Amino acid sequence: MIDATTFERHRRMLFGIAYRMLGSVADAEDMVQDTWLRCSQVTTPVDNPVGYLARTVTNLTLNRLTSAAATRERYVGPWLPEPLVTQPDAGEEVELAESVSLALLVVLETLSPLERAVFVLKEVFGFSFKEIAGMLERGEASVRQVGHRARSHVQARRPRYDTPAEVRRQVTDEFLAACLGGDLNRMMELLAPDVTAWSDGGGKVKAALRPQQGAEKVARFLAAVLTQPMDDPRVHTVDVNGRPGLLLTVAGHPDTVACAEVEDGRITEIRIIRNPDKLRHVLPTGRPDARRPSDQS
Fold first, then answer.
1. Nearest CA-CA partner of 89 in 204, 2, 9, 168
2. How do residues 86-124 score in pLDDT, each as one tens digit?
3. pTM: predicted TM-score of the whole model, two decimal places
4. Where are the alpha helices (DSSP H) in 137-214?
5. What range(s) does the RNA polymerase sigma factor 70 region 4 type domain occupy (predicted)?
6. Angle between the 129-136 and 49-73 helix axes, to the nearest 10 degrees?
7. What's the pLDDT tens digit per position in 46-68?
8. Residue 202 main-chain phi, psi, to 5 deg
9. What gap in Å lies between CA 232 and CA 248, rounded to an integer?
10. Radius of gyration of the chain (CA)
């Protein structure tokens, strides 16, 4: 059996596995709760509690992915993961930030459920192929092959950003200031020529149905968004999945979460999450930095 103390000690690991598998905070929390319900019913001794917990949450998320696949196929516009929003530099709040970045989670979406499970368990949480084979009830050689395939797939598509965290924050803050100041030229200077911006509204709020590409197009798109009529709009500096980002609140409620990737001093990617279903868990965080340019006196 697994007692509550042991379960709580490994709760963050369980959430981490489920979140990286599903890209959903709400679903990951459900999987953690379901894992406890399963484990609390076990009456026999458990020799390896960590392995048992990881096995349980992994198999639960694999089952959830089956139903999630059909939902993703009907999704309106670009799909982005639910964001993990924390105060800037709160490194302890997002473990292994590189492995939970929105950019990586989007890449993991291109893997099969089995590949994703093996990659997350091996590359992020350090389980051996032998342990993973036992969790998934598959041969070790087969799991090893799946793991190598998944790793190669991710390495080929995974963005490589070596920019120091302080530089990412500086560039992001300068870009935010330019946006709030309505300085289109400065915005374009801080954007890479081939920058891409994705906007996830899920068909429930206004958002671009296709990625926006190119510095001028992205700058004008963001400028247009910031000048839309809003009730008491405020921008908060936050970290989004371990990356510099912002939270826009309207009338005190989360409206938009966005984060940027920076390379060579310029922003190369912007991900904007507006689907209200994906912001239900987000609370206003950090100090309000400014109002929109149209609200400034």
1. 168
2. 877 655 444 445 678 888 899 999 999 999 999 999 999
3. 0.88
4. 140-157, 165-180, 184-190
5. 102-153
6. 70
7. 889 999 999 999 999 999 988 77
8. 60, 20
9. 10
10. 20
